[in-house]
Structures are given as structure tokens and as C-alpha cells.
Amino acid sequence: MAAEQQSYDSVSADYFARRGLRRYAGVASLWALGVGAVISGHYSGWNLGLLAGGWGGLALATLVIAAMYLGLVFCIAEMGAALPHTGGAYSFARASMGPWGGFITGLCENVEYVLTPAVVVSFLATYLAAVFDTPAAWLPAYWVGGYVVFVALNVFGVELSFRVTVIVTLAALACLAVFWISALPVAEFSRYALNIGVGPDGAAVELPQGNGPLLPFGLEGVFRALPFAVWLFLAIEQLPLAAEESTDPSRDMPRGIIAGLLTLFVSAGLILWLNPSVAPGAFKLAVSGEPLLDGFRATFGEGLAKLLALVACVGLIASFHTILFAKGRQIYSLSRAGYFPRFLSITHARHKTPYVALIAGSALALVIMFVLWFGMGAEKGAAAIQGMLLNMAVAGAMLSYLLQAISFIVLRRRLPGLKRPYRSPLGVAGAVVTLVIAIVTLVFQLLDPIFAAGVFWVGVWFVLGVIWFALVGQNRLVKAPEEAFAIEASRR
């Protein structure tokens, strides 16, 4: 590291005063933030992997991805306790790989946190349109309304934001629990979950009586299902972004993120087992935009469909609200240190929330959604937009995981004496597992033409970001807390 060689701009005395945050979150709030961010992935999105690998292929892919997240979460728990800064992944990479490493890692997370809420709000709009019989042409109105309401909730104080997070996360889990309990008596695993076969042309076909092969597409199907299994855990890694709003991050951050991941392991296992095990079965579920609602229809009947659709919105709201929180803090931290334009890190004078970052990030997401809506053609429907945005978000996440695993390994080797209130039980081996699985997942994204299109636009995002940092950003850095830590660590 050559952190001490980096020059920094002098800032006025009130620079950090105008960018202050307020501490509030404990273990329960951090747990809810992690689980809430992910939980919508148990409502929609994961099911697309059924057509890629069949039930068995998706199940094995989920186990592989779960191993990746276990290694990642242990790495983050250790680094987040040792470097309790709002920067999260950027601050880890900054301390281990210098300003450029920090910026690139931050840019990866920026892609993920700007676009993931856009995916979730598009799913939410689809559900609400079904409930209120809204024409498809009006879906963008739900997007705008969702952003306005939940950006406002995030702006009006960290206390309110975390209270809403806890409530909607518990409600989302309760909704899933009702489905699990209702599905258990009627589940027919062999008939419904194993109703995907392979036709003469190699394409998936429906087996009306079920009892098909566990791995209809063989091991290749397992690899093809990896990117879809990510949706069951995507965004759990956002917890370190709340470090400077946690009352005791060195103690509470590891507890919150590990408890959150264990909760998601249980929920993911139950939804993967029970949702495809009831009508209409895995084949039809694989192309559904509302798989949990389809499961409710099978257990409670069509008459309750609209009410159940409203209930299912709770999970989408939980993720939308919590990832908006993460997006605001992620843009704020990079801006406060000068990597992004500095005005983005100004916080609300009364509520001490990064309102400029929240509004700017949300405006960018809406612009991208409208460009896709008019560029791809509204007639293609929300599904095409959801697919493109999801692919881009997953690509950004995989690149971020790669760099966070590398950051962990470098910090272990270069700073062995760093005070670590929590140490990963998997050590460097866990980081290596995360690294390998993330690379494999990214490779199979690139092999899929649909995913590849999303990765291409992520590349465009990166090129623009790198040009900005090379010409402007690296010459306007500010000695924020994570920057000061990196300098001191490199001197030691």
C-alpha cells in the first residue's frame, strides 16, 4: 500500500459537521436491515433458476451460493468490526488496496445498490397493478410513487427508518411463515417440484405427472442456475454501510450479519422446497413473476388472490426500503471522501440522513428504468426491464464480492496486528471459497446471452466511473475517517 503518498484537499471546518450521522442501530435493527434487504428475493426472482437447472439443479446451486455467502459474511463480519466506517466494501478495499482499489470496489457496489431497488420496485409495481387492475402502461406511476414514499421515510430520520425496517421485515417473514404452514399439508414434491423434463431439442418440457429427474440438465444446469440462486441472499452484505449509525459496530455488526444470514438460510430452504411442491408446479413457476402468490393460490384458492397479492407486497416493501437505506449510505461515504462529487454527502440539518445521496441515487435509477421502458419498448412489459436490471445488479454484486474477498486476504497478510474484535472462523480459506464461487458465477453470467447484455452495460457504467475518477476524483479526495484509517494502517 502507498496510502501515505495520496494527497488530500483541505476542507473547511464545517465540512464534516454538514455530513454528520446519528447513532441508533443495535443488533436487532442490524439483523432486520440485513434480512429485510434480501427477503424480496424469496418472493420473486429465485424461481427463474428452475428452468435453468430444474429443481435439483437450482437446489444444488443454492447450496453452492450459500457457501459463498457464508464465507463472504464471515469476511465482512471481521472487516466490519475492525473498520467500522460507513464506507463498507469501499473502506475495506481502500485500506487494503489503496484509492483505486477502494474506488473500483465502491463502483461495483454502487451498481448493485442503485439497481437492486429498481428491480424490487418493478416487481412491486407488477403486484400492485394486478391488485388494482391497473393498465400496464401505468406501471411507471407505481415506480415513481414507491420511490417518493420510501425515500421520504429514509430521509425523515434514522430512528424512523430502522423502526419501519424492523416492522416490515417481521411482517415479510410472517407472510412467508403463513405460506410454509399452509403448504405443508398439500405439498407433493415428486409430482410438482420434479415436473421438468428435457425435450428432444434439449429444451425444458412439462411432465404432467411429475416424477421427473432431479437434475434434468445435469451438472451444467447447476452452473446455469448459480446467478439465480444469488437472488436468495443478495444484499445481506450491506450491513457495514450502517456502521456509523450503529451504537456499537465492533460488537453488534458481526452478530447482526451472522444472525441475518442464518435466518435467510432457513427461509431460503423452506421456500425452495415448498413453493415448487404445490400447484402449478416447478415448470410454470419458473416463468412466474409472482411465485409466492401462485403458491398462495394453490393453498388458499383463487378467491383470496388479490388480498394475498397485497400481503405479498410486504416482502417487496421490506427489501425496497432497506436497500434504499444502503444506497444512500454507499453514495454518501464515497462522496464524503471525494470519490464521488462532494455535494452528494451533505446530510439533513435536522434528521442527519444523507438526503442528497438518496434523492440523486433514486433519480438515476428512475432515469435508467424509463430509458429501458421506452428503449426496449413498453410492449415487452415489465419482465424485460426486470431481467435487464436484475442481471446488471447481480454482475455488480459478484464483482464486489470478488474484491471484498481479496481485501480480506490482503488485510490478513499485510496487517496481521490489526485489532480485530471478531475473527472469521473460516479465515483466508473462507475468502478463497467466496472468490472462486463468485468467479464461476460471473463466468456463467457471461455465457448466457441475456445476462451478457446486462454485464455489458455494467461495463459502460465502469468506464464512465473510471474516467471521472482518473480526471477529477483522485485529485479531490478528502481525509474522511476511512481514509485516515487507511493512511495510519499503511504507516504501521
From TrEMBL:
PANTHER family: AMINO ACID TRANSPORTER-RELATED, MEMBRANE PROTEIN. It is a multi-pass membrane protein. GO terms for cellular component: plasma membrane. GO terms for molecular function: transmembrane transporter activity. Keywords: Cell membrane, Membrane, Transmembrane, Transmembrane helix. InterPro entries: AA/rel_permease1, APC_superfamily. The keyword Transferase does not apply. The lineage of its organism: Bacteria, Pseudomonadati, Pseudomonadota, Alphaproteobacteria, Hyphomicrobiales. It holds the Pfam family AA_permease_2. It is found in: Cell membrane. This is Amino acid ABC transporter permease. The chain crosses the membrane at residues 24-43, 55-77, 113-132, 138-157, 164-183, 214-236, 257-274, 307-326, 355-376, 388-411, 423-444, 450-471.
